[in-house]
Amino acid sequence: MELVLFVALSFSAILAFCAYRQRRELQDVGSAIESRDEAIGELKAQVETLERDKMASQTLASTASDVAFDTIVLLDEDLRVVLANRAAERLFGHSCPIGKRLTDLVDSPELYNLVQVALREEESVEEQFAIGGSNYRARFQVISLGRAGSCIGIGLQDITELVNLNRARRDLVANISHELRTPITRIRLIIEGLFLDADKPKRKASIQSLKEIAMETDALLWLAQELLDLSMIESGEAILRLVKTPLKQVVDDAIERLESQATMKDLNIVSHVPRKFDVLCDADQLKRVLGNLIHNAIKWSPQGETITITASEQDDEITVSIFDNGPGVPDDLRSRVFERFYQADVSRSGDEGAGLGLAICKHIIEAHGGRIWAEGNSQGKGGHFLFTVLRADANFGEDAPVAEARRAQVALSESASPL
After folding, report:
1. Model confidence over 90-149: pLDDT tens digits?
2. Which residue, among 156, 108, 168, has the nearest Cα to 128 in the 3D structure?
3. Which of 281, 296, 356, 377 has the smallest number of Cβ neighbours within 10 A?
4. Cβ(357)–Cβ(296) under 8 Å?
5. How many CB atoms lie within 10 A of CB 406?
């Protein structure tokens, strides 16, 4: 009996010990599971943080590339677009170029060849070339991705305006040198003729020579003044006093200033400008515009012809027209004649002027809120220039800030009218 009781107690003790061991093992497993869950939670939090950082970085990179003025493109080894900013989309003419081959997006063998050179040499390449009439400076950079291969980054900067400015600068130097050389050479020759010991000039010849010197000096002063005026107008430093002015009075004053030049060529200047037209303008500046246009008409008109000035109204504007019977402006030069230093035909221009007059006219008329243009030969024979100015009683509208500025300027000018 005691033995049986001992065996039973021993068996119970063994079972209790096994249960204890299992309970401890279960507790250890539970602790391990809790630790693993905590580790998994921490890893998930880290992954989420990395994902947010990645998205933020991608957003920043995308925003930075989109706001850039330059074109930015990333290509894979097959020359398919991986990344393109908005400037690139505008260049390609495609709103979603991702995944498309470069050769399918832009027709530029030079660009394609430069990409091949960069991939082959695996180094940065810089070059300048043209795409569709625009000039670009490009940089190509190969980026190694390790086992994933490589890709190539392209940055394109549109330098068309810079190229045009450089060309204009060269033209400026050439034109100014040409315009200054002629009067300076003539002045030098006249002065040398005045002081020749072997041939003392008579008083009458001396006076004529001095008059010629004065004329050439005036030409130099006029060129310098036009350069200064154009610089001030383009920089916004020229101040316009817009006041209500009879258009006919301005036209008549401009004609009177050039009447002697017209008489020398036996030209007749006819004005058909109604007295009822009042315009909002700076009278002196508008006279300058009319003077330049009438002077052009006198220069190009055949002897004995008529120059006609007319005006008509439409809505809030008055259009002024200057017409002559000269050769006119070719259709392809209608816009170019208003460029600085541009002369349509130097060989027939009599070597007069520096090509600044029409550029000054354009800036003055645009400063008045108007437009100026030339009609080409296909629209009729003869030279025909037109510009618009605002009527003095024009209704600008209540919500037009430019109109309010004009009214304020007019009020200021009228209050200072006794000057």
Report:
1. 878 877 888 888 888 888 888 888 888 887 777 778 888 888 778 888 888 888 777 767
2. 156
3. 377
4. yes
5. 19
Q: Looking at residue 400, what DSSP letter applies?
A: -
pLDDT recorded at residue 395 = 67
Residues 12 and 296: their CA atoms lie apart, in Å, by 127
Residue 267: phi and psi, rounded to 5, are -100, 150
Query: What CATH number has the domain bearing residue 81?
Result: 3.30.450.20
* DSSP label of 276: T
Say which CATH number the domain at 182 has.
1.10.287.130
3-state secondary structure at position 312: strand
* Number of alpha helices (DSSP H) and beta strands (DSSP E) in the chain: 11, 12
Please state, in angstroms and as integers, the Cα–Cα distance from residue 361 to each residue in 185, 347, 371, following that order.
Answer: 30, 23, 10
pLDDT per residue as tens digits for the range 170-215? 776 666 666 677 777 777 777 777 666 555 556 566 667 777 777 7
Alpha-carbon distances of 410 from 229, 237, 391, 398, 407, rounded to whole Å: 23, 18, 13, 16, 5
Question: 């390449």: which residue's tokens?
Answer: 125
* Domain boundary residue, one of 116, 133, 158: 158
Residue 412: band (very low, low, confident or very high) from pLDDT cuts 50, 70, 90: very low
Dihedral sign of CA atoms 12, 16, 21, 25 in order: positive
Say if CB 386 and CB 319 are below 8 A apart: yes
Residue 295 has pLDDT above 80, yes or no: yes
Instruction: Report the relative pairing of strands 268-272 and 306-314 from DSSP bridges.
Output: parallel
- CA geometry: angle at 342 spanning 213 and 300, to 5°? 70
- Say how far apart CA 59 and CA 104 lie, in whole Å: 27
Cα–Cα distances in angstroms (integers) from residue 215 to residues 184, 211, 212, 254, in the given order:
11, 6, 5, 21
The SS3 call for residue 142 is strand
Domain boundaries, position 110: 67-158
Tokens of 158: 């549109």
Residue 177 tokens read as 């040198």
What's this model's pTM, rounded to 2 decimal places? 0.51
